[in-house]
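By convention, the C-alpha cell line describes the chain's fold. To illustrate:
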Amino acid sequence: MLRRLVLTAAASVAALTALAPAASGASGALAGPVAGSGASPLASPLGRLAPLPLPLLEERPDSFTVTVAGSGVTRADGSFKLECGPVGGTHPRAKAACDRLTELAGSDKDPFAPVAKDQMCTMQYGGDATARVTGIWRGRNVDATFNRKNGCEIARWKTMEPILPAPAGS
C-alpha cells in the first residue's frame, strides 16, 4: 500500500513538473540555462530542474515460519519455512499455501487477526492442534496463534488451510 502511494506521488510530481510552464520573460523567451551550455546536470532543456528519481520502496516478499503441533497429520507437525514470491521454503504444501495467501490478500478481512473477545462461538472441540505463524505478509509483521478449541477457532483454522494442515480424517 505504501509503495503504491509513493509511486503515485512520484508520478504526480513528474507529470506536474513536465506540465509546469517554463519561467519566461515578457517576450516568452526561455529562462535559465539550456542543455549543452554548461548547465547543471539536473537541468532540463527547458531550464527547469528535472525531478529527482525517488528510490522505489522494495516490498518484501511474504515470508513465514509456520509451527504446528498436535495435528495428528503425518509430517504436518514441526516448524516450516514458507516463502511466497517466489514460492519456496520447507513447507510441505508451499505452492498451495502461497496460492491461498494470495486469495486471502484480496479479501477485506485479516486472516491473522484473533477471534474477537466478544464473539459468540459454538462450544465444539476440534482437537489438540495448535499453530503459530510468524513473519511478513503484505509488508507487515505477523505473529498469530491458532487452535481448534471452539467453533470460531475451527473456522479460523479452516480459513488458513493449506497454510495450516487440514485435520486428520477431513
